[in-house]
Design goal:
The structure holds 2 protein chains of 2 kinds. By secondary structure, chain A is of the alpha/beta class. Helix content of chain A is about 35%, strand content about 25%. The relative contact order of chain B is 0.09. Classes of the chains: A alpha/beta, B alpha/beta.
Chain lengths: ~325, ~500
Amino acid sequence: MLNSPLSVHNVTKRFGGKMAVDDVSFTVNPGEIIGFLGPNGAGKTTTLRMALGLIKPDEGHVELFGGEPGDESAFGRIGFLPEERGLYKKQTARESIAHMARLNGMKGKQAFMLADEMLDKYGLSEAKRKKNKDMSKGMAQKVQLLSAIAHDPEFYILDEPFSGLDPVNQQVLESMVREIAERDSTVIFSTHVMEHAERLCDRIILMAGGRKVFDGPTEEALAKAPRRMIIGSDTEGYKDSITPFAKSLETREDGALDLILKDDAKSQDVLERCVKQKINLTRFEPKQATLHEAFVAMVGKDLLATMELEDAEVAS
Amino acid sequence: MKMPALNLRRTYLIARRDYLGYVKTWGFWISFFLPFVIGAIVIAINLAGFSVSPTRYETILDQTGSHSAAILQSEADKQEELMAGILNGLGGTVLNEQDAEELEDIIDTQGIDEGKVYLETKMPGSTSRMKALDSKLVFIDPPSRDLEELKSYMRGDKMASFEGKDVKLNGVLHIYNDGELTADYWSPNVTDNPVRDLAKSYFRDVSVDNYLGSAGLDREGYEAARESRIKIEAFDPTKKATADGEGQKVGSKDRIPYLVAFALSMMLWMTVFSGAYMLLTSMLEEKMNKLLEMMLATTRFSEIILGKLLGVALLTLTAILPYIIMGIVGVIGAIIMGPSDVAQGLITAFSPKMIIFFTIFLVLGYIFYGSLFIALGALAESMQDAQTLTTPIMFVLMGAVFIVPIGLTTPDSPLLIFASWFPLSSPFAMLMRLPSDPPLWHLIASVALLAVTTLGVILLSGRIFRFGVLSGAGVKVATDWFKRKILRRKVT
């Protein structure tokens, strides 16, 4: 059996007495794409930095490819993109990519050829010999991402890779992650935008307030989200027939009903009741659950609001 | 003690990037070629006989009729004396002792022109470059005997004539007697008044002559009496005695090793300072743009530190290469041109001992300060942080610059001796002591102390570097530590 690229065992980290990561454990299995989710300040970046050995945990320990983080055994096998972006201002795009590829063990000529190939592939041909300081923010971000992954590592650790990218480049990045997955490499990426994780991940780890609140397949996380549906009808009193299935029910501006189903109720049951009672339906829209809803369901609205408030205070 | 493991390829790649990162910039090449460009401009100016001061046309309106000729003669004598000094100085530098003495004799007995001829035969082309040294002061006959009219010449309303061309009169020395001998100098140029100085000197001599004359004496006798004074020669008992008694004599060449030590010490200081500062900024750039985190995912701390030290060392050597080349060419040139005093002094100055210890102190001093600055760069979060953190070390470095010149006059100064043992200043101060030949054990012990301290600094810097990068807390960590441990205050 292949070694786990990463095992995090009960790690805890405090900064100035404030708990940043609280007793977090998880294992990353080979070939998985893991979304490391949570709002800003949830402890995602700190956990990833501990995973790489960039920060020492106060308690617990980390195994990277079976060894200590920072050991020779992991060098060249990891592609790391930090949350905050930057490049050597006076290097050109191809030099930046080739430099990191060479540090990761690639030969000089091969590294430059690969840099040119990647820049062509991702629409940055004209930036090859452009200095990083002369590039747009989006271009520079793409170059840094290519620097992190050019050596085709086994394990990708991408901290907020989508942040700062425009929608077109977010799509490009998603397709890059899919390509990586096709090569059976392992990816863990952090994000606070749940949609990316929904589309890309086999598994998600949800973090909130420094604690892990969920770790499992994406479907399992989605199942934790409340099931919503919109139903509309021109039949008098149809609301009474539907109320027994609803945990909560609100009337929309257009007269349709916005309902959250009870845990044991299904949308098929609602439909069956409507047919039996000859209710003339004008709308019947079961809503797909989102990870955001699952996340809210797991951590509670109040905690989420508190965290977002704290986050806003830190930012200001 | 466990030594940090190293991957040489990665270390080389980090060194290479730091080196090329600077070398590929225009700024680097501008500073690289600047000494050559300045040298070329100076030579071009010299060849073209261009002078920074323009020729000034002056006149003397002597209404007494008894001083003008004497003042002009005094100016000619002064120029001759100046030129004799320059010729003798040049001879002392480029000729051997015997030829230099012969040149001095020729100048004394046959005059400047014969001296120039002699120097030209010994060193062709040397005197043709001296045109630029000719006086820029030209005395012309007064275009008018009326002071009021002369003022219009100075204002430029009228032009005077010199060798058939119109020239503007710069100044008038007006000497008259209205019951008392008086001299006034008129000129629109209020800052540069050589004629006024010349007149002052002349009338001072006149006063001395009058005074001596009142006692039946003259100035020639006074000068001869001064010349016949007892001359005091200096001897150094530590030098090797020779049969002619000249071996232990102290001459100007004995000062050269001190001047060379001073120059090398300053060069070492500049190399260490600029290298350390480059390391600081390079480290700070990587810390601030988070490239350091990307690198640490694939590289060891020790490889980053060593790679940076090597890259910037090579860069600093490249940057000072023009000065090294010019220095070597100059020293070799002086030695080849003959066994003059300067050449002998240079050979003594660049002794194997000086070269060996200069190399040792350069390497140790650079590593000492370089690794310290890398650590501080890693601890800082911004340029302001870096300045705050490096200020104490900057003070020490600046202090060393003030101590080194003491060695030029007082190589046995207790302060210099202390500085030559103190590791933060020993690289610069011990070099300054070398010409006075300190005991070998002093040198070895100072190097050993510096080496041990450097090793300690490397280990400490490694820890600070790790802490700085890993904590991400920047200068606050240092100030918090100071508050907790020194001020005994609670830190929130």
